From TrEMBL, chain A:
Keywords: Cell inner membrane, Cell membrane, Membrane, Transmembrane, Transmembrane helix, Transport
UniProt subcellular location: Cell membrane
Protein name: Autoinducer 2 import system permease protein LsrC
One annotated Gene Ontology cellular component of this protein: plasma membrane
Domain of life, source organism: Bacteria
Chief location category: membrane
InterPro entries per record: ABC_transp_permease
Protein purpose: Part of the ABC transporter complex LsrABCD involved in autoinducer 2 (AI-2) import. Probably responsible for the translocation of the substrate across the membrane.
Any one Gene Ontology molecular-function term assigned to this protein's record: transmembrane transporter activity
Oligomeric and partner information: The complex is composed of two ATP-binding proteins (LsrA), two transmembrane proteins (LsrC and LsrD) and a solute-binding protein (LsrB).
Record field: transmembrane: 21-38, 50-68, 98-122, 129-149, 169-191, 221-243, 249-269, 276-295, 301-322
Record flagged with keyword Transport: yes
TrEMBL record, chain B:
Organism: Actinoplanes nipponensis
Protein name: Ribose import ATP-binding protein RbsA
Keyword Nucleotide-binding: yes
Annotated localization: Cell membrane
Membrane topology, from the record: Peripheral membrane protein
GO MF annotation list: ATP binding; ATP hydrolysis activity
Length: 336, 508
């Protein structure tokens, strides 16, 4: 167990890390090219904007990554963000004295409740997650619309401390970015180093084997949907604080950006592999693409085409890596 | 390899199955079975395909719950709500099909559920890796603990399963045909480890179709037949002959109305057919009016051979001639055009479109011929379907009802009607009466018999010995992918077919 065991280990870890490495490489190239043609792209304000825009997407991508790793999907996150943002904005305009912490807790609770509904329907209703969350996507949005009734909460109705939260910084880092870092880091740690995280990977890797192994599949699945919902709820609070103006359409269509970030970040669509860090990087890459296209004065519509191409590229890379790993392992076997 | 007589200890059983019964729908898979597993003893569970062994395994694993009867661990009755409970009770199961997580590392697969933790309740990867490496050293195998489980050979996967069972410190180890995919050396190593575990006081339940393994490893044997308990006795008290007789021993009832037919021209000639790793050098002929049975254990390659003949699967060597002409390989379309029909084993998945109406299902392979100017009219379909379903005495409500609403036996008749409508010269039926009640079974048999009498050549793949013996003019027994015996109707008995299927000497 010396030479033969370590050599393929390096090879493997190299191959596995390729996914995140590829995203970082794409980021560096994109930023380098854009900065070369327009140096203002690297100005403090520009970087700050990119990070603030990434933060909300990254928080949602962390939750989505967990759900996708279990071989499910949560399409309702955009609507959950909308519901949470409108709930919290209404609450804050009615009770301007409430501290920020309460706003965050309410957002988490609204999102968590939505996650419970999704999880229960998927697990106990035995309905595929794609269908359940497509349904709740419309349901949550419908509830928000009928509640708002065409009204919107404007920035001038919201308390100052709520609005400045998005821009206030600790040690030069905006709160929003800090929260995103803590969320992505925390969820990544949970998925990598804790039993429940590995069980979630196991469930996505082979659902039948997970049942036979005595993993508490129902509890874990419910947990994954609650996490995804709660983080979408948190993202709703951040959204309201950052933009100040909230109507019932807040976050419409955002679920597709979130899924794109997760897939581009190297999480396998059929579950079982990928990392939360990768999903966070995917969110960053998508945001950077959007900003640099603006800076480079390229038609915004190209952005969608590029994101689409990236998703396909990510899935192809997935297959390629899987095939190459299988081949290198088979070769190694034949030597033994 | 010789039998090691274990210490006979009459004390309380480590694990006991007490009068359990389990039904799936109307089918009773296990009826009133009881046997004990003692610590320090290896216990064999044997029986034909479908005798209920796997159902017993799944009950012990906590996957199924017995309808009646109980399980007892150390003399105390237990109820398993799920696999986690069985695991907690110290029962580890190695399934026939490995159940690994392909995306996770080998070490993680072994540790799943009881990973070593650090003070912060994080997974201690170093300890996990060391644990896996230690287990592999103990098993004497070289598998890298850090590689993903994806891509492991079946034998290596089986070894990882065993390491998994060892790591959970199981006191009861249940092995469902663990040796099916292993080579001789690997089997020896597995047995060495199993004996060591047994001698350390574990209770072992071992399922295998290989009698030499049973006599080499086990002290006690339980024989099952048709879901019922036949006997539980010390292995030393039974000869292989005794075991086989008790596994199959039942009366050949007069359920099989085989008509004498005139055997005609050769219809199908299969010559030296082989496919890497699946079957090899399979040759046989089938003549008009003849029913030829392919017998053997599950996994012997029977269905695979017939699917290769029909063109659903490829074959590497050999040739197929049909009605005197070579048949194009790998093309079910060519096989159908030439006059072959295949009724697959799995009606629900391969034979019928469950949501479509009965008439649509019957006419599906003929929809082109029935169409006028490319349009399919209901009346033409109905005429055709009515004619066939009445010929086959199918019990149905309306022809427009979905096929899924019919009973298993009547579904099978619809599948047969569907293929008979194409006017075939050769009919291949795979497990024609699986999951069909006794009454309808006889009807399907009568139908097959009358088809043969009308000059159709029939190849029947079947795991049910009485059916094979009752229906076939000739029997070809496959074992591990090659022809183990060819028997005529007169020569065949339950014992010698079983002997051949299991690799024992054929004594005729």
């Amino acid at each position: 167990m010396t030479a033969t065991a370590t050599a393929p280990r390096h090879l493997l870890s190299g191959l596995v890390k390729v996914r995140e490495l590829g995203i970082i490489l794409a980021l560096v190239l994109l930023v380098g090219y854009t900065a070369a043609s327009n140096p203002r792209f690297l100005s403090g304000q520009s970087i700050r904007d990119i990070l603030l825009n990434t933060a909300i997407l990254a928080v949602m991508a962390a939750g989505q990554a967990v759900v996708v790793i279990t071989r499910n999907i949560d399409l309702s996150v955009g609507s959950v963000l909308g519901l949470s943002a409108f709930t919290v904005a209404t609450m804050m305009s009615d009770n301007p004295g409430l501290p920020m912490v309460v706003a965050i807790l309410v957002g988490l609770a609204v999102g968590g409740a939505a996650g419970v509904l999704n999880g229960v329907l998927v697990r106990y209703g035995r309905v595929p997650a794609l269908v359940v969350t497509l349904g709740t996507l419309y349901m949550f949005r419908g509830v928000t619309y009928s509640w708002a009734g065409g009204q919107q909460v404007n920035a001038d109705e919201l308390p100052r401390h709520f609005l400045t939260f998005a821009n206030d910084a600790v040690l030069g880092i905006p709160w929003l970015v800090l929260i995103a870092l803590v969320v992505v880091g925390g969820v990544a740690l949970l998925m990598r180093n804790y039993r429940v995280g590995r069980e979630l990977y196991a469930m996505g890797s082979s659902p039948q084997a997970a049942e036979l192994a005595g993993i508490k599949v129902a509890r874990n699945l419910l947990g994954a949907f609650i996490l995804s919902g709660a983080l979408a709820g948190l993202a709703g609070v951040l959204f309201a604080a950052r933009f100040g103006t909230v109507d019932a359409a807040a976050g419409t269509g955002l679920e597709l950006n979130v899924v794109a970030a997760v897939v581009v970040g190297g999480v396998a669509v059929f579950g079982g592999s990928g990392t939360v860090w990768g999903a966070g990087l995917g969110a960053l890459l998508l945001t950077v693409i959007g900003s640099s296209l603006t800076v480079l004065d390229i038609n915004q519509f190209w952005q969608q085409a590029i994101v689409g191409a990236l998703i396909i590229l990510a899935i192809c890379a997935d297959r390629l890596v899987a095939v190459r790993i299988a081949r290198s392992l088979r070769k190694k076997d034949s030597h033994v | 390899m010789t039998a090691t007589p274990g210490p006979s200890r009459p004390g309380p059983a480590k694990l006991e199955v007490r009068d359990v019964t389990k039904s799936f729908g109307a089918v009773a898979a296990v009826q009133g079975v009881s046997f004990p597993l003692y610590a320090g003893e290896a216990h064999a569970l044997v029986g034909e395909n479908g005798a209920g062994k796997s159902t017993i395994v799944k009950m012990l694993a906590g996957v199924h719950r017995p309808d009646t009867g109980t399980l007892a661990v150390d003399g105390a009755e237990v109820e398993f709500a799920g696999p986690a409970d069985a695991k907690a009770a110290g029962i580890a199961v190695i399934y026939q099909e490995p159940t690994l997580f392909p995306d996770l590392s080998v070490a993680e697969n072994i540790a799943m559920g009881n990973q070593p933790l650090t003070r912060l309740r994080q997974i201690d990867r170093k300890a996990m890796h060391a644990n896996a490496a230690r287990l592999f050293t103990r098993l004497g195998v070289h598998i890298d603990p850090d590689r993903p489980a994806r891509g492991l050979s079946i034998a290596d996967q089986q070894l990882v399963e065993i390491a998994k069972a060892l790591s959970s410190e199981a006191r009861v180890l249940i092995m469902d045909e663990p040796t099916a995919a292993l080579s001789g050396v690997e089997v020896d190593r597995l047995f060495a480890v199993t004996r060591a575990l047994r001698d350390e006081g574990a209770a072992i339940m071992f399922i295998s179709h290989r009698f030499e393994e049973i006599t080499a490893l086990c002290q006690r044997v339980t024989i099952m037949r048709d879901g019922r308990h036949v006997c539980t006795e010390p292995v030393a008290d039974l000869s292989v002959d005794d075991m086989i007789r008790r596994m199959v021993g039942r009366d050949l009832s007069a359920l099989f109305p085989k008509q004498d037919t005139e055997i005609g021209e050769t219809v199908l000639e299969v010559e030296g057919l082989g496919r890497e790793g699946v079957f090899r050098d399979v040759s046989f002929t089938v003549r008009a009016g003849e029913i030829v049975a392919l017998a053997g254990l599950v996994g012997a390659g029977r269905s695979e051979v017939m699917q290769a003949v029909f063109g659903v699967d490829r074959y590497d060597t050999g040739s197929v001639r049909f009605l005197g002409k070579p048949l194009k390989a790998g093309s079910p379309r060519a096989a159908m055009a030439a006059g072959m029909a295949l009724v697959p084993e799995d009606r629900r998945q391969q034979g019928l479109v469950m949501d479509l109406s009965i008439e649509r299902n019957v006419t599906l392979p003929r929809s082109r011929a029935l169409a006028r100017l490319g349009l399919l009219f209901g009346a033409a379909e109905r005429r055709e379907a009515t004619s066939w379903t009445s010929q086959l005495q199918t019990k149905l409500g309306r022809l427009s009802d979905p096929v899924g609403t019919l009973s298993g036996g009547n579904q099978q008749k619809v599948v047969l009607a569907k293929w008979l409508a194409t006017d075939p010269k050769l009919l291949i039926v795979d497990e024609p009466t699986r999951g069909i009640d006794v009454g309808t079974k006889a009807e399907v048999h009568r139908l097959m018999s009358s088809l043969a009498a009308r000059g159709l050549a029939v190849v029947m793949v079947s795991s049910e010995l009485p059916e094979v013996l009752g229906m076939a003019d000739r029997i070809i027994v496959l074992r591990e992918g090659h022809v183990a015996a060819r028997l005529t109707r007169a020569e065949a008995t339950e014992e010698n077919v079983m002997y051949a299927a299991m690799g024992q000497q054929v004594t005729t």
